[in-house]
Amino acid sequence: MVADRLDVVAVRIEDVGGVVLRGVLRAEAGGAVVRSSCGDRRDVERVDGGALVTLERDVRPADRAATPDPEVESVRIRQVRECVRLLVHDAVAERLQRPQIEGLRGLEVGDVDGDVRERHSGSFRSVQSPRMILENGVVRTMDPSLPTTRALAIAGEYVAGGVGTHERALPSPEVVDVGGRCVLPGFTDSHVHFPTWSLTRREVELEGTSTLGEAVERVRSHPRHGTWIRGYGWRSADWDEQPTANALDAVTGDTPALLFSKDYHSAWLNSAALARAGGDLDVDGGVVERDESGAPTGILREESAWQFRARVAMPTEDEFVDATREGLRIAAGRGVVAIHDKDGWLGAPGVFQRIASRDGLTLRVWQSVPYERLPELAALGIHSGIGDDFLRIGYLKAFMDGTLGSQTAWMLDGSGVTITDGEELAEIVREGARLGWPVAVHAIGDRANREALDAFETTRHLWEPLGLRHRIEHAQCLAPEDVARFSALGVACSVQFSHAPSDRDLAERFWPEELDGAYAFRSLWDSGALVANGSDAPVEELDPLAGIRAGVRRTIDDRPAWQPEQCLTVEETLLATIVNPTWLTGDERRRGKLLPGYLADLVVLSRDPIDCTVDELETVEVVATMVGGRWVHNPPPWD
Ligand SMILES: [Zn+2]
Question: Which residues lie closer than 8 Å to 195 by C-beta, 6 or more apart?
Answer without folding.
Answer: 320, 323, 324, 327, 341, 343, 346, 347, 348, 351
